[in-house]
Each structure stands twice: as structure tokens, then as C-alpha cells.
Amino acid sequence: MQQERMMYRDLKDELLLTKEQIARRVREMGAQITQDYRMEQADLVLVCILKGAVIFFADLLREIDLPVHTDFMAISSYGSATKSSGVVRILKDLDKDIVGKHVLVVEDIIDSGLTLSFLRENLLSRGAASLKICTLLDKPDRRKVDLHVDYAGFQIPDEFVVGYGLDYAEIYRNLPDIGVLRPEIYEK
Ligand code: IMP
Ligand code: MG
Questions:
Q1: How far is the CA of 39 from the centre of ligand 1 (A)?
Q2: Cys-Cys link to 178, which of 14, 105, 163, 185 (CB 3.0-4.6 A)?
């Protein structure tokens, strides 16, 4: 009876992705990553981009059958509540250096691509051996920069979504499913 939670009233009726669909896809992604990094496992660092990716990260991590290291970064992209500007500020940096490490950045959603293209250059300049990008959601129609995404869970249409870690004004992160926020919520 999840749909009776109060916050579901702010979503369009049809959920975009149910928790079952998400779990199934996360399992597949974990298996793929396990296979792809089997040779580099000693130096694999998964970097969680706070806060949106935290739930995806926690689930994905448990689907990877390799001895991974984890680290966390918090970044804020200036802009309106529903659009990023690409001007990125690091609020919390990695704890450890990544020289010679194989870095897999785990993000919740890629929209314009501006945040990740900044991050990609920033992390590569620190001497990582390799850098790949993994995102749960991808809105390819909105891309403003050319960005190669190595692992994408779902391609979704150009709509503002919340749940499973994704927020609007810091709420809805704790919804187990992903839905489209009713525009009247952010237009008022
Ligand atoms: P980009 O720099 O435009 O790719 O922005 C990516 C960031 O914008 C994500 O990490 C999210 O924080 C935020 N974002 C973009 N689209 C959505 C959405 O539909 N729901 C919630 N957050 C979003
Ligand atoms: Mg984010």
C-alpha cells in the first residue's frame, strides 16, 4: 500500500519505475560491473555523488561481487530548483586520493550532463587510471554537452522525477519508487 503514503499524492498517478523494476535493473547493472572490472578489482573505487545517488549506491554496491572501495563526494550545481547551470561547487571532497585507481562514479540522474562533465575532468586530472560513469537514470533529450555514459539504468523522458534518492527541494528522497512530480508542485 505504498501508494497511500502521503507524498505519493504529489506524483502523477502512473509511477515511472516501481521498486521491483528498479531492483531488477540494479541487479543487472551490478552483474555487468562485476564482469567488467574483474581484472581491475584491486584498485576499484566506487564514488557516490551525494545526496541523490545514496540509495542507488547502497543497492548497487551489494550487487557487485568484487572487493570495492567506496568514497563520497557532495557537489552542488548552481541553478534553479529543477535545472542545473553547470557551475559546480564541491561541498565535500573525496577522503582518499585516486591516483592509479579505477574510478566508477555513481550518480542518480544525468540531465544536461554539465555536472558530470565537470566532475569527469576534475577526477581525471587527479591521476585516476580510468574513469567510468554509472547513472541510474538518463534524460538523453536534455543533454547540453557530449558526455559518454558507461552504465545507464533507464533512459527516461524529459520530466522532473523524484523518489529512490531523487529530491525536489530536499523532499521525496525516501519514496521507494520513482514517479513524475506534478508540475503544479514546482510551478507554484
Ligand atoms: P545535470 O548537470 O543537468 O546533468 O544535472 C544533474 C543533477 O540535476 C542531478 O544530479 C540531480 O541532482 C538534478 N536533477 C536533474 N534532473 C532531475 C530530476 O528529474 N529529478 C531530480 N533531480 C534532478
Ligand atoms: Mg544530484
A1: 32
A2: 163
3 state DSSP class of 51: coil
Output the nine-digit C-alpha cell for 117. Answer: 562533465
pLDDT at 51: 95
d(CA 113, CA 149): 10
Say what the pTM is: 0.94
What pLDDT, on the 0 to 100 scale, is given for residue 31?
98
Q: Alpha-carbon distance 108 to 50, whole Å?
A: 9
If you compute the radius of gyration of the chain from its CA atoms, what whole number of angstroms results?
16
Identify the active-site residue in 10, 59, 108, 111: 111
So what's the pLDDT on residue 4? 66
109 Cβ closer than 6 Å to some ligand 1 atom: yes
| Helix residue ranges, H only, the chain | 19-36, 54-61, 114-124, 183-187
Nearest to 135 by CA among 66, 53, 69: 53
Domain residues of the chain, as ranges?
18-161
> Are 56 and 64 contacting, i.e. CB atoms less than 8 angstroms apart?
no
pLDDT of residue 168: 95
Decide whether any atom of ligand 1 lies within 6 Å of the 77 Cβ: yes
**Per-block average pLDDT, block size 10, for the chain (188 residues)?**
77 97 98 94 92 98 97 84 75 97 97 93 96 97 95 97 96 97 90
Q: CA-to-CA distance for 126 and 60, rounded, in angstroms?
A: 25
